């Protein structure tokens, strides 16, 4: 009986090990993904000025990692003019910016924290 319990314990240990291995591999893969600097992510910022006529917005932004840009205040184009109706100057936001034909275009604006 002692032998049997030992065998079961070994079996359980083996199962636990095989279960933990794939999840460890997964974690490593996710980590690799986040360190890739190309994927556009949300950037923190604060709206300075809104130009509805020309579809432009001035944002004081934090570092934009996927564009290798340090924090600064600058003018962006917006993908959709309607985005400017939902925000106001002085508001803290999180936004997504992409490069499109050499221009910086804001594609999404969310309220910041
Ligand atoms: Cu900038």
Entry keywords:
5-stranded mixed barrel; 35% strand; 113 residues; alpha+beta; binds copper (II) ion; OB fold (Dihydrolipoamide Acetyltransferase, E2P)
Overview of this structure, please?
It is a single chain. With 113 residues, this protein is of the alpha+beta class. The chain has one helix spanning 2-34; strands at 43-51, 56-61, 72-78, 92-100, 103-111. A 5-stranded mixed barrel has the order 1-2-3-5-4. The protein is rod-shaped, with a radius of gyration of 24 Å. The model is unreliable at 31-37 (pLDDT under 50). It binds copper (II) ion.
How much is the average pLDDT? Answer: 83
Going by helix content, strand content and strand pairing, the class is alpha+beta
Determine the fraction of residues in helical runs and give it as a percent range.
25-40%
Query: Shape, please?
Result: rod-shaped
- Quaternary organization: single chain
Q: Distance between the terminal alpha carbons, to the nearest Å? A: 60 Å
Strand proportion: 35-45%
How many strands, what sense, and barrel or not for the largest sheet? 5 strands, mixed, barrel
Query: What's the architecture of the largest domain in CATH terms?
Result: Beta Barrel
Low-confidence stretches: 31-37
């Amino acid at each position: 009986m002692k032998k049997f319990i030992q065998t079961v314990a070994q079996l359980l240990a083996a199962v636990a090990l095989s279960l933990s291995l794939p999840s460890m591999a997964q974690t490593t893969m996710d980590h690799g993904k986040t360190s890739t600097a190309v994927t556009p992510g949300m950037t923190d910022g604060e709206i300075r000025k809104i130009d509805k006529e020309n579809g432009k917005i001035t944002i004081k932004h934090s570092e934009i990692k996927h564009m290798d840009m340090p924090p600064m205040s600058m003018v962006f184009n917006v993908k959709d003019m309607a985005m400017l109706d939902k925000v106001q100057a002085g508001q803290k936001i999180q936004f997504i910016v992409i490069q499109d034909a050499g221009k910086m275009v804001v594609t999404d604006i969310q309220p910041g924290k």
